[in-house]
Amino acid sequence: MARLQLRNLEKDYGGFKAVHGINLEVADGEFMVLVGPSGCAKSTTLRMIAGLERITGGEIRIGDDLVNDKAPGERGIAMVFQNYALYPHMKVRKNLSFGLRLKRRPAEEIEQATRDVSNILEIGDYLERLPKQLSGGQAQRVAVGRALIKKPQVFLFDEPLSNLDAKLRASMRVRITDLHKQLKADGLQSTVVYVTHDQTEAMTMGDRICVMKEGRIMQVADPVTLYNRPANAFVAGFIGSPEMNLIDAELSGNRLVIGTQTYDLSPDIMARLSPKTPKGVTLGVRPQHFAVVGPDAENALEGRVSHVEFMGHEVYLYIRIEGQQIIAVVSASNYDRSKINGDLIRLAPQPQSAHLFDRQSGENVSLADIQ
Amino acid sequence: MADHILTQNLALDQEADRVLKAQRRRQIIGATLRYGVLTVVGLFMLYPLIWLVGASFKPNSEIFAGAGFIPDEATVAGYVQGWQTSTPYTFGRFFWNTFLIVVPKMIGTVISCTAVAYGFARFDFPGKKILFASLIATLLLPNVVTRIPQYLLFRDLGWLDTFLPLWVPSAFAGDAFFVFMLVQFLRAIPRDMEEAARVDGANTWQVLLFIVVPLLTPALISVCLFQFMWTMNDFLGPLIYLSSVDKFPVSLALKLSIDTTEAFEWNRILAMSVLTIMPALIVFFVAQKYFIEGISAGGVKG
What we know:
The complex is a heterodimer of chains A (371) and B (302). Chain A has 371 residues and is an alpha+beta fold. Chain A contains 9 helices and 20 strands. In chain A, helix 2 runs parallel beside helix 4. Chain B folds into 2 domains: 54 residues; 218 residues, Orthogonal Bundle (MetI-like fold), CATH 1.10.3720.10. Chain B has 13 helices and no strands. Classes of the chains: A alpha+beta (371), B mainly alpha (302).
């Protein structure tokens, strides 16, 4: 069992608290992605799991062992670094086997393991090359191989794809996900903690995603839940592209007052609001969840189009509603300029996809069943 | 019409040709001037060395006859007699003595300075700032002021007239300059590789030995070269601590041949001087590549 548990994990840099007691449990064989903007302490958290950063509070368990005070090499982890961190003076073969050689494993075992790993990652042709003779993608594969060869309990990835170009990144993404599935299917240890700042990577790779902000966990959930039921305005804004529109509004009865306009909330949402819901709220609507409607449509918001971006299959409309900038994405085939009166446009948010957030705390108040 | 265009083209061609030629001429003149000046200045600076080599093949009477360096009657008498020296030992003995000082000093310096620099560059420990500051402060201290306390210390240790005072301090990272140089070099090397090694299960010493030292190689070669040259050239140290002739290194032995003979045999002194500078010169040219890589610290591929 290679379960990973973080309990009240804290990191204090002499007065500056980087990690505020986070709790996270990664199940055996799970692909967990830590995501967040830069400075959210996701890398610090990963480095604490690896043992490269001393923790100042809480505990880390790998399997059932408390590893707080264990050296990185004794924790049963392997790590892939952002800039590969291959040993520049060793050939690929030696780079792969360095860990095993330190453990003084028999030569045949090392040879066999090197062969297996290089077959899986298709790096057999480069074994006698030095790292500087490899391309970025090849070096990245060697770095993954160096982790794989150790058969660790938990794999740690620290933004491994951020140094690659977009095309290579997409193919490596698939490769790593496939590798994870393969390991799992073979019944091998396959628990992964993967750090990235790229929400596309997070959404496409993770079984579950842990969204972090300023040393705190904002939400841990699978990608679909994260997208459809964000626990707070931060997650709502961070996940999805373009990001969710957050429109400041005042709650008045069953309608929202946005500047001089009003928007009637669906009975659905109203049912989920508690009497304690504050007046100051933020309406969250994803750009994809607007319908462009005619001038006489009911319950729509009117705004001024400031900018139009044609993306091929869809069109991004930049609109100002009551002084607030929003984006609406409409499919190019449905995009009908005639519905825009001058540069005025009327948008109807899809009632079932709208969210309401407490403006103070950022909590999603329209999700009754999410804590 | 066509004619007109043709003439125009021709004129254009000629014009372009003229400009190109002028450009090439300017380049040639520029290069000649540049290399001319460099050669003259270079020769001017190297001349004493060239003269030294030339004069070492001259007979004694000819040495001060002119400033030219080509001997009228070339002879190796200076080398033969100089090698014999006026002492019971040949010059080979003095080279051997130098070797006995230089080798332990180089090895000791490299090992101790690497360990100390690694500590300063990669670890946090109480008092690190003060310790590093005092290390740098010793760089600024003139050597002369510590000579007497050092002498008394080594006298009480019973180390006078041995090689120990000449290399033992260096084997305990006594040369702040090298520590400083290695610290700077290490700071420019990203830590990722070391962290990867720790994740791979290496302990601190294994990281140092298998990862840091290979990365430091160019800098370590520079350290060896500097130490080699400075020790070869060191005169004051051996002069203070060594009193028996059989322990003299070459730097003292050269002076010896001036002291003991009444009429200086300049050709012998010059011949032995040429031999003395040879090891340093040879080592420098052989290791030049690493040397330059090492002192241009920070030039490490990430």
